[in-house]
Amino acid sequence: MSPTFHDVPARGQTTALQERVDRLRASMEWAADAIPRDVRDEVRETIGRCDERLALGVDWTIVALAGGTGSGKSTLFNALTGSDFAVPGVTRPTTAHASAAVYSEGAHPLLDWLGVREEHRFHVPQAPPELHGLVLLDLPDHDSINGANRDVVDRVVPLADLIIWVVDPQKYADHAIHSAYIQVASVHGQPSLMVLNQTDRLGDGDDWAIIEDLQRLLGEEGLLDVPVMPLSARTGRGVDGLKAELAGAVESGSIAAEAVRADLVAAGKALARALAQDADPKLPDKTEIIASLARLAGVDARAEAAGAVASGRGHQVPDLAPIGLASVERERLDWIDAATDGLPLTWRHVLADTVASGEELTDALNRELGEAEWPEVERPSGWRGRMAKVVRASAASKSVTAVGHDAVARVVREALVEPTIRIHQAYRNLDELTRLEQ
Q1: Where are the domains of the chain?
Q2: Which of these, 78, 123, 121, lies nearest to 98 by C-alpha position?
Q3: How does pLDDT run across 181-197, given as a tens digit for each residue?
Q4: pLDDT confidence of 438, banded at 50, 70, 90?
Q5: What percent of the chain has pLDDT over 90?
Q6: What pTM was computed for the model?
Q7: Which residues form the G domain (predicted)?
Q8: The domain 60-253 belongs to what CATH superfamily?
Q9: Nearest Cα to 190, choosing from 141, 223, 228?
């Protein structure tokens, strides 16, 4: 029987998940006021948890050897790693500190967080590719009289992607490991595997009798999915089979990645009520508002006057008068209405606060138009000029129109278009999050 592993994302998810969390953070910064306060607080807590997990990396598979005093965990640890890695300061047979075997580079932040000391870390040389990303932990004895040792076990066990419970023929039915750890791990859905170690000390057939009794105990506790493997770390019997289970755990991925994804899914469900179903905000036609504001600013009238001067019908091109606030505010509100069509009302308020105010938009238009480099327009002279007055008039009018529209477009882009794009993107990012299923 083999343990059943969680179906979690493929290795190399740290960057992809971090990008998703970063998009969520940016979206909340841009549009926090559109989200109910309780949901906003929940999402921000989610971002904090995800940042913490991702800072450690979610591409590591944590496998923990857990068991009681004298079960042979450390001997099994050495057999699996192919080393005689010794933990300094440990008086056998008690394991007092967590040790770690790392099968690839870069696990230091994770090991720091797990509380594994530098002197208790072993980098496996020439690790097989199928175990790349594995962190194998040898935990302190769960039945230690030292409360600090039990605290390490209690903290690390929920973080493991696979827990290998190591028992020996004498204490395999120990109530402490069954009630305090194995049952709890099963309730939380953690893949577990039980190893009956030291089978070399048993007579023929005795190991299978103990295995049957172990499976009976597990069945009575409702732990039907926890397999039992006979093994002797001292002689090597069953070690290769256990290594194959380690490879299976690595291939399945990490609980940390699944935890981040689960947090993002939960955040999406919480955000759903702040969004409108099937809404797809559209950017209003910017050419339309540019043309309207240019007309209100007198650009069209100036272009017409320039054409008249160039054709000989007029004498001068008048300066532009300042555009009025009321006219600009009407155009601004029309833009906001169109940009938030179909969205909840709170998003209209957010967009109205994000784009430039009416006063800011008016001041920017008057400043940009006042600083524009308008083309010089001259009356026609001589017979050639009089013959080409129609062409000259059209060219002068188009030139003035282009300068005026370009000036207005610069203001509209910075004051309206770019802020609207940010809010729309925030909405889409949040909406995408609500559609995550796993």
Answers
A1: 60-253, 286-434
A2: 121
A3: 666 555 555 678 889 99
A4: low
A5: 38
A6: 0.64
A7: 63-197
A8: P-loop containing nucleotide triphosphate hydrolases (3.40.50.300)
A9: 223
